[in-house]
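User: Show me a protein chain along with its predicted structure.
Assistant: Here is one chain, sequence first, then structure tokens.
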Amino acid sequence: MQTTFPQLLLTHAKQRPTAPAMREKEYGIWQTISWQSMATMVAHLACGLHQAGLKRGEHMVVVGSNRPRLYATMLAAQSLGAIPIPLYQDAAAAECVFPMTNAEVRLCVVEDQEQVDKMLEVRESYAALEHIYYDDPRGLRKYDESGLGSVDELIASGEVFDKQHPHFFKEQVEVGTQHDVAAMFFTSGTTGNPKGVVHTHGTLIDRAQAGAEFDHLTSNEDVLAYLPPAWIGQNIFSYAQWLVAGYVVNCPESMATVTIDLKEIGPTYYFAPPRVFEGMLTSVSIRMEDASSLKRNLYTYFMRLAKEVGPKRMDGESIGFFNSLLYGLGNLLVYGPLRNNLGFSRVRVAYTAGEAIGPDLFTFYRSIGVNLKQLYGSTETAVFVCLQPDNQARADTVGVPCRGVEIKVADNGEILVKSPGLLKGYYKNPEATAEVLTADGWYHTSDAGFLDSHGHLKIIDRVKDVGRIKGGSNDGAMFAPKYVENKLKFFPHIKEVVAYGDQRDQVCVMINIDFDAVGNWAERRNLPYAGYTDLAQKPEVYELIKECVEQVNADLAEDELLAGSQVSRFLVLHKELDADDGELTRTNKVRRGFIAEKYLPLVDALYGGLTTQFIETVVKFEDGRTGSVSATLRISDAQTFVPVKAAA
């Protein structure tokens, strides 16, 4: 039985040596790597890393986009019993220092010149970093730094060692067991230093198998790997499940070509956070606004039909002969071409997770024949906790517990999970481990929610964020900031939201507009603007956003539990929230507390009844320079509604 990832690799190489394992797009052409070629590459890399001094139980950092040789490097490290730590490729050098110091890293493998420069900067603060190996040599020819070398050199030296010691690699792989640590993932964390989540081969492989069994994944799947490998979600889909199911992982040429590559590959198994699906729908909406009246009318008619019968059809329910006929025509004229244009012509299973997805957005994709579903999990649970069955996909739940998972709800509403995929612990942090793992094996998720009558899990918010309104007409009402934020983000014109209200007399929000969507909206109305800051403060834009806010308030008024969370006042921020400015985590989660401190004058103005407030903000540019953005922001009131039950 194969119990480690390198053992799974060797099994695929033995059973299906010429079958494609990965594809990488280079200079516009897809290059295929077979399972045998991948195994050979991993063997040579493992031997090279051994010669470089990598020891069993030692940590090694990997930084870069999805690249076959970086995946091979992680397998090579695991073959030696070492532990790869993928870090976010867009993280600043300062953000890498703590993880590398914490894990006592001596050796790293990175993608290109940008990452080499970053590691050299890290070495100024962390001198223990001895070796830096790079995959892409462009721009590095004249670099003369100690310990700097190429992956090509590593492979070449490993190939020589492999010929001299032909049994070394396989002997090292055979020593590995499911209880060995396979990888460490640093949580992005909204407060304090990130924590290293330790996972064994057993935990990751078990959850990868559970997910593969649930959706009947086979070696015939095609996956596009385009999200950061440092995020465990991407790692599970394009690494753990890749080795478990043996399907093909496709690596795009660059982030700029992902849309084109998605259409070329036509994945059968696809994963994206809601923001990606939102972006796709926004681009469709923009294109349809610019289309001819005939196309717009055709699209409007058939999308109305799809919204009425499409989800039922996806759930296997009968929609009647006439509707089936009309839907078939719509599929020929609208849905099929639309799926093809999005790159979803072959998608059999599509998942979204990380944040709640809007009902309209969810319905849109399912109505045009995309089997979009939700899942629930975290870094600490190796992702797969709950999954939605094909015929039970709903926008307001995250599915049912998958194989091996138990769920219970604590008295305070917190969801507790018991699963074979739970973390071994937080690295060098027994106190934090004890906070989340009970003695009898239950993991505290920190999420508030409940199981509905159908056994599906519903998530309300983070337990620590669920608060109460204090004072005013809604005194004592529940306040769930993420729930409010997500409902507002369902609108294509709104990109990000930060909501406040706990222990206050009303709910106020700060909003980021979606620059592309609102920009297109403004251009169609001949509304001139000079940039994001100017556009965000246009009175017309405020009216547009006010309509969205008041529609959310009307929806909240119908929810007895959360009617008190209606938004009373809002403002549109003068800049986009950015991870480089500390306002978002690297996984794009809002750092609400940090933002409240940074924009305290704005929070005070919202709650102080002001109608305008000047703000000046320091921002960090991509090249590391800093500057400032200033503006006088408008603050607007929004209509709130009497809760439906109270009105009755």
